[in-house]
Amino acid sequence: MYKESAKRRAQRKLPRKAWVKKNPEKRNKNRRENYKKGAVNNKNFRSNWTIHEHSLITDPNHPRDRVLAEILGRTVQAIQVERCRQKKGCH
What we know:
Blueprint: H1 2-11, H2 16-22, H3 24-38, H4 51-58, H5 65-72, H6 76-88
Helix pairs in contact: 3-5
């Protein structure tokens, strides 16, 4: 009985931080794929961020960064950097 419950716990989905620690190669692969796909959407290169764009990237229920990149016409990396700037308040 005890072994069955331990197996169930092992089969549960890992929390994000634990998954990242156990799978750094998969995380890096996913990150590289995101950057490749996001680099296509570069029509707003070096343009100022609008209030609407800021609200989209800081919304707690925002879509994935890859989807946001397509919507906003920016790269995935640009979205991540701007979100970090907004959190730190250095913008």
